Amino acid sequence: MPSYIAPTKDMQFVLHEVLNAAETGIPGYDEMEADFTGAVLEEAGKLATEVLAPLNTVGDTEGCVLENGVVRTPSGFKEAFKQMQDGGWTALDCDPEFGGQGMPYLLNTAVGEIFVGANMAFNMYQGLTHGAYSAIHTHGTDDQKATYLPKLVTCEWTGTMNLTEPHCGTDLGLMRTKAEPQDDGSYQITGQKIFISAGEHDLADNIIHLVLAKIPGGPEGIKGVSLFIVPKFLVNDDGSLGARNGVTCGKIEEKMGIHGNSTCVMNYDGATGFLLGEAHKGMRAMFTMMNEARLGVGLQGYAQAEAAYQNAVIYANDRLQGRAVTGAENPDGPADPLIVHPDIRRSLMDQKSFVEGARAFTFWGAHLIDKSHRSDDKDAEGLVSLLTPVIKGFQTDKGFEMAVQAQQVYGGHGYIEEWGMSQFARDARIAMIYEGANGIQALDLVGRKLAQDGGKHVMAFFELVKTFIKDNGGDEAFDKAFLDPLKAASKDLQAAGMYFMQQGMKNPNNALAGSYDFMHLFGHVCLGLMWARMGLAAKTALDGGASDAEFYETKLATGRYYMARHLPATKMHLARIESGADTVMALDAANF
Amino acid sequence: MPSYIAPTKDMQFVLHEVLNAAETGIPGYDEMEADFTGAVLEEAGKLATEVLAPLNTVGDTEGCVLENGVVRTPSGFKEAFKQMQDGGWTALDCDPEFGGQGMPYLLNTAVGEIFVGANMAFNMYQGLTHGAYSAIHTHGTDDQKATYLPKLVTCEWTGTMNLTEPHCGTDLGLMRTKAEPQDDGSYQITGQKIFISAGEHDLADNIIHLVLAKIPGGPEGIKGVSLFIVPKFLVNDDGSLGARNGVTCGKIEEKMGIHGNSTCVMNYDGATGFLLGEAHKGMRAMFTMMNEARLGVGLQGYAQAEAAYQNAVIYANDRLQGRAVTGAENPDGPADPLIVHPDIRRSLMDQKSFVEGARAFTFWGAHLIDKSHRSDDKDAEGLVSLLTPVIKGFQTDKGFEMAVQAQQVYGGHGYIEEWGMSQFARDARIAMIYEGANGIQALDLVGRKLAQDGGKHVMAFFELVKTFIKDNGGDEAFDKAFLDPLKAASKDLQAAGMYFMQQGMKNPNNALAGSYDFMHLFGHVCLGLMWARMGLAAKTALDGGASDAEFYETKLATGRYYMARHLPATKMHLARIESGADTVMALDAANF
Fold first, then answer.
1. pLDDT of residue A290
2. What is the pLDDT of residue A188?
3. Which of chain A's residues have a Cβ under 8 Å away from the Cβ of B565?
4. A contacts of B557 (beta carbons < 8 Å)
5. Residues 397-416 of A with CB under 8 A from B
6. Cβ–Cβ gap A352/B317 under 8 Å
7. With an 8 Å Cβ cutoff, are B253 and A418 in contact?
8. Contact map slice: B 504-543 vs A, CB within 8 A
9. Helix H or strand E encompassing A486
10. Mean predicted confidence (pLDDT) in A265-274
11. Do A256 and B569 touch (CB under 8 A)?
């Protein structure tokens, strides 16, 4: 069975030596001293290793079962969920006014990586609840907040997001679910929603569904969509649970992975719902939570890769097979461990350098979200808006790819469910799809975010890269290994942006046909920037005579690998982009 | 449920307009007239569409069940297997002396793509049997041939290959299974073999296991391995079935995919075995079948991608979601079909251009194998030896990647087992692992094949590319779209080879650390060459006033896409290769 150890040291390095969290002056960040965050991460790691990780295979094997309208979660999930609640983990970055601990989102993100790495399907119950919490916190009335938030903060009640219907996922304007206004100000919700994660389960007393639906007579299409709170059990004025609402789980989907999470078809039969935010502004309400939700999925991508990587390293050290070409390294044994072989190292270094880069990128994104929320920093908000589709799309593609590589290290054993490596790949696969399939992320990036506010944020990004290179150049070895490749990659990204500006004017397909490659190109530059920042931090520590030289040397070596072996992808993506839309759009639909 | 239609027209194009099969003068190829192969492929396609494809989901869902030592295959497999036998499909390229039809391996390969595309797990029962047939045909005594071949040709009996043991897969020198010589000239085989595809099942009266084992007292390691025939039921002198042999299935593995095939742990408890070929030359005997076996797995890679692609195209045409950015294309419907969107086309073109290129490459490989076997052409044998790890490694990596892309077209529905797209990805995944994991293919390519016969075959490959470009240049549009990119890619491959020669001398790790990228670089150049050849054939047909202009225009457009959008990968692989082994080997094992 696979194991999981929280990479707390690597996390601390990003928090304190790269982002210098405690010194940023963001309200609430003064608590983020290294001792404190270290203690929190260690504690989360304990829960992850001892409780959540052992349940990961259980969840995959048992799955969720629907019987008589009730969903049974896998053995042990209930007890583990209780431990998660008791430890206060569900309340970490929630508003103290409603029982939260008010910690930065950044810290919540780091803790989230640990829980997701240990058991992604399990952690979704809490993750969806946090989404519902955020939506009600931002758009709810005082009454709604008082009614729902305290219970969502503790996860005594959990939450869901209901967007997709059988005939529409991306194009929610086609939605058919109806919300009929009632005399008492409530609405009757009728329709079917599919792919509802944690739609029904046995972990909580109540489930608060957030449901997108159309109020009859409203505007056509996406502009006529409103957001509703539809509790499984209606809540009495005294806060106790009242009548069972008209919402039921019709089916649990059989999926490729995340079996431990119940993915439900939800049927709304005149269920009582309460408008959340303004009528017909449902999509806008969803969008305010989107950066966090998508960052959370981008995190799943690399967190699964981290978990898979950890196990691949163990196997590569244990499994004896073949001899090093440069001479036996385990001469007393029957063979050398796999890890002596250059191609196994190539694979492990691909994984390691991606995961550590993605972690830094994700933490930086969370840091920008805090900056925008806590310091009302519009530039930070604009920048993280731009980066969010990259974090989501690039990291989940690469995360899956790396989980597959980790599985590959096991040879035939990687294909056998017994060893657990297949689950990492199967679970990671969903992150490329939900919360906006990655093609949609690319479209969002190129079609909306690039030009947002007159292209201000992408210019700011390039400026940031340029300044970093300018400010930190001069050390020949560092320049050559880190800054020169970053500069070249950034130039490729700028060239791609320029191509879109010039050719997209002539025909928007020239931009859209390159959107996916642009997202990946951007992702490489971002991870290149993060590695340059991590490399600099490591160099600074070494120059300062840090006692743990091996740790920092390893960081530098891993960064050098990323720059030498991942970044060359930027030229390929640029070449694909610059080939334009002609070859992409050449065929009639009938000739595919 | 997914569907499958044999792409017979595309296959015929490769057979007759690219490879000009009937005119090659290879013994037996004179029968390969277009009418004949067309009829065979249509007939195979009928069986595939009507019988095998509908059983693909059944196989995945039901899997194989072991009860009291007997394995039950999924519903319908038995009847389908009977139809496969009755149609003579199992005997297609087998020796007429033993009941085969003596057709070229090339035709068998084309038919194989159809069956594998329709139902990969099902087709493995026959595929493994064909491997056992080949081994006995090549290395068996006259008695052994007479005893086993007629039954293997018809698949009344099936075959298996037993190599892997729990502690050794790649490194078979560590093998522990023992073969004790008996007075009657037979051997007693004792040991455990794992991952034995079709090791036990209910489709045939007898199962002929080919088992690698060590005769005590023989040479150490891989040089002391011998190959044995171990029938499930011993065969009496009159050909009837005798005593049950001491070989049993201990367990069926739970796998990520190919559930329809029984992957068995096989226990040999003093089972009676008969030496096949020479003692201690078991690996050599295995190697003689390796090109075919590996080509067969490379075929699985793109055949699964083809099946997944076909369904992605159907979905992209059916599913209405969003509007084309250049204006509504289905103005009377609620939305446009997915296929109007550039990023969906980018994905479909990636798939289509890969699959068609891979088909041509695989058929060319099969053609070279026929040439080497039927015309005793040593150059063809050397060339296909060189190309085999590329066909296997590159095509299964890409095949999986493309199946994942096809799955992605379905959005959330791609993750739900009901739609069948997950199965294509899960089934395709194994092809990257078995028959030598792809890292081993890369090692075989760079460590053995490149330098084989003094590098003669790789030089011949480059010469072939050069000659093709020289002979067919002069048409500006064709040069620009096809020959120039091929030339550039081939130059990258040569530069990589040069790097290995120069730097690999200093340190072999410089070559091995780049082996995986080299395999992919090589794959791109091969598919580039195939597309140039297909492009030329299409151009020739159009210049000759072919009636089906749309078919040939589509070929040219698809080829242009491959050259513009796939081939830029060669520069990335070269850059990774030229970064050498330093960053790959930098870390101590403890620092991963």
1. 83
2. 98
3. 576, 579, 583-584
4. 583, 586-587
5. 400, 404, 408, 411-412, 414-416
6. no
7. yes
8. 507-509, 512-513, 515-516
9. helix A484-506
10. 98
11. no
- Please, what are the domains in chain B? 8-286 (2.40.110.20), 289-436 (1.20.140.10), 446-586 (no CATH)
Query: Taking CB atoms and an 8 Å limit, are A584 and B164 in contact across chains?
Result: no
Instruction: Give the pLDDT band (50/70/90) at residue A170.
Output: confident
Which residues of chain A lie closer than 8 angstroms to B305, CB-CB? Answer: none
Question: What is the tens place of the pLDDT at every residue in B513-551?
Answer: 999 999 999 999 999 999 999 999 999 999 999 999 999
Alpha carbon of A100 to those of A32, A94, A137, A375, B24: distances in Å? 17, 4, 12, 19, 78
Binary contact (A408, B195; C-beta < 8 A): no
| Contact assignment for A404 to B583 by CB distance below 8 Å | no
B189-248 pLDDT, tens per residue?
999 999 999 999 999 999 999 999 999 999 999 999 999 999 999 999 999 999 999 999
Task: Give the distance from residue A85's alpha carbon to the nearest chain B alpha carbon, in angstroms.
Answer: 30
Q: Output the pLDDT for position B38.
A: 98
pLDDT of res. B513: 98
Q: Minimal Cα distance from B221: which residue of A?
A: A334
Catalytic site residue from B62, B67, B435, B463: B435
Q: List all residues 6 or more positions away from B241 whose beta carbon is below 8 Å from its beta carbon.
A: B205, B206, B233, B234, B235
Q: Give pLDDT, residue A556.
A: 98
Q: Nearest-CA neighbor of B445 among B531, B340, B540, B526?
A: B526
Cα–Cα nearest to A426, from A319, A307, A296, A516 = A307
Q: Which residue of B has its CA nearest to A309?
A: B592
Residue of A170, A341, A415 with shortest CB distance to B255: A415
Average pLDDT for residues B310-328, to the nearest whole number? 96
Using the predicted structure, report yes or no on whether residue B414 has a pLDDT greater than 80. yes
Q: Identity (one letter) of the amino acid at A308?
A: A
Q: Which residue has the tokens 């051997």?
A: B187
Q: Which residues of B touch A408 (CB under 8 A)?
A: 432-433, 437-439
Among chain B residues, the shortest Cα distance to A195 is held by: B412
Contact (Cβ atoms closer than 8 angstroms) between residue B340 and residue B329:
yes
B180: which strand partners? Answer: B188
Share of chain A above pLDDT 70, in %: 100
Q: How many CB atoms lie within 10 A of CB A99?
A: 16
Chain A contact present for B46, CB below 8 A: no
Closest to A564 measured CA to CA, from A377, A407, A404, A346? A346
Q: How many CA atoms does the CB half-sphere of B26 hold within 13 Å?
A: 25
ipTM: 0.97
CA dihedral A374, A380, A382, A388 (to 10 degrees): -90
Residue A214 pLDDT greater than 80, yes or no: yes
pLDDT tens readout for residues B415-442? 999 999 999 999 999 999 999 999 999 9
A207 touches chain B (CB under 8 A): no
% of chain A residues with pLDDT over 90: 97
Residues of A in contact with B352 (CB under 8 A): 592
**B495 close to A (CB below 8 A):** no
pLDDT value at position B289? 80
Q: Considering chain A, what is the average pLDDT of its residues?
A: 97
Using the Cβ of A168 and the Cβ atoms of chain B, whether some distance falls under 8 Å is answered with yes
DSSP B338: G
What phi, psi does B256 have (nearest 5°)?
Answer: -70, -30
Mean pLDDT in chain B? 97
SS3 assignment for A337-377? EHHHCHHHHHHHHHHHHHHHHHHHHHHHHHHHHHHHHHCCC
Give the Cα separation of B122 and B107 in Å (integer).
20
Confidence check: pLDDT of A288 > 80: no
Would you say residue B254 has pLDDT above 80? Answer: yes
